[in-house]
Amino acid sequence: MAKIISMHSFRGGTGKSNMTANVATLLAAEGQRVGVVDTDIQSPGIHVLFGMNQETMSRSLNDYLWGRCEIGAAAYDVTSSLEDGLAGRVFLIPSSSDASDIARVMRDGYDVALLNQGVRELMRELELDALIIDTHPGLNEETLLSIAICEALAIVLRPDQQDYEGTSVAVSVARKLGVPRMVLVVNNNPAAFDSAEVKERVENAYQCEVAAVLPHSDELMILSSRGIFALRYPHHPVTALYRQVAACLTA
Amino acid sequence: MSEVSASILVVDDDQINRMVLAHDLEQEGHRVTAVEDGGSALEALRDGRFDVVLLDVLMPELDGYETLAQIERNEKLRHVPVIMVSALEDIESVVRCIELGAADYLPKPFDPVLLRARINGCLTKKRLHDLELEYIEQVGHVVDAATAVENGSFTAESLDAVAARDDALGRLARVFRRMAREVTAREQALKQEVAQLRIEIDAGRAATQLAEITETDYFQDLLRKAHELRERPE
């Protein structure tokens, strides 16, 4: 049975989308068929990492949610944009980055229940091994839904006082919703912070496993949103940590 | 008197020559050590520091040529300038000595003016060479300091000697030392922050936020359906 994984962060800018794209790609490299749904409808961005833009996006998640198409029609096989010979496949269901679409979502909202239905259809139609939901930061209705339906949840945070409280709320919400597997991922850890010590303190504070503490990486900052880091730097320590996160979420 | 006092080794098997040379050189303000053969010269060179060697060409046993050759083969001695001294006036002898590495050649009998000129010329070159060696050595200290910064073993005092120079290298060392101190200070400040790394969560505020979310009808509905949602057959 396909596994639904939600990638969440309480605040924006934690590197959640990069994490999602890299984990999806690493799973595909192992031969898995992976779907990625960008539910960050108010500030979409993951499509850029897979080489897409608004012009190459004839359908999006928005069209499905507004009843304009089936969910499958908004799924793009982006495997060819990644690397030749990738054993598995990556399908992306992007959100529209068109300003008027974003404005409409913010003004009118959408039927959140459709998301669940769409996710199930995607898993069946595309015969997915895993489906990763790149959520909108915070805890709005669609994010709560994606937490409620997932089998594994990763909450990404930075070692930053502002992230701690929100993360604690997200962890509590996920526990209430009975998420079977939940891990924390600390991203952008400054070089001066000892990873093992940060891991221990975060685990103690939240009583939750930390899948990885990713250091701040200049290479990652430079590559930014122009590609998949794990493919560009397959032997980089950060890639090994992405692999560790992927293993934790699919274990 | 010479402008600069130097330590000079005189090597000659003839006692009179040794005395004459030593006298003339001491009159110029130099410190003189005189030995009578090549073996003693090499021994003296290994034991002490000399700025110039005045070496007789024709000596019994180890002659001037072989002594010069051994000096030139020795990494630690080859930088000491050697002025060959001989009554020989043939050009071939002069050429052979220069080819072996001699800095200059002085014919006997000694002309005090020529002796002073040759000694001063050699000392000038030696000092320039010593300055160059010192410069290279001090550049090495800066390079070592960079390695130490990377290894986390840098101490600012290791650059004191270089930083005291009043040239560009000294300025480089001073700037490097200051930047390394700043980096160290920043790292220590960060380490202190890490040591004090506390994950402070306002339990009351977090509980309020949690209640705002979980007490909504939407959440309660989701809560009821969550298990069913995950278990729904494909």
Brief overview, please?
By secondary structure, chain A is of the alpha/beta class.
In CATH, the homologous superfamily of the largest domain in chain B goes by the name: Response regulator
Low-pLDDT residue intervals, each spanning 5 or more residues of chain B: none
Classify the helix fraction of chain A into a percent range. 40-55%
Note the beta-strand portion of chain A.
15-25%
| Helicity range of chain B | 55-70%
Describe the structure in your own words.
The complex is a heterodimer of chains A (251) and B (234). Helix content of chain A is 43%, strand content 18%. Chain A has 251 residues and is of the alpha/beta class. Chain A has one domain: P-loop containing nucleotide triphosphate hydrolases (Rossmann fold). In chain A, strands 3-4-2-5-1-6-7-8 form an 8-stranded mixed beta sheet, sandwiched between helices. Chain A is globular. In chain A, 53% of the residues are buried. In chain B, 61% of the residues lie in helices and 10% in strands. Chain B has 9 helices and 5 strands; from the N terminus they run E-H-E-H-E-H-E-H-E-H-H-H-H-H. Chain B has a 5-stranded parallel beta sheet with strand order 2-1-3-4-5, sandwiched between helices. In chain B, helix 1 (15-27) links the parallel strand 1 (7-11) and strand 2. The radius of gyration of chain B is 37 Å and the shape is rod-shaped. The model of chain B has no long low-confidence stretch (mean pLDDT 87). Classes of the chains: A alpha/beta (251), B alpha/beta (234).
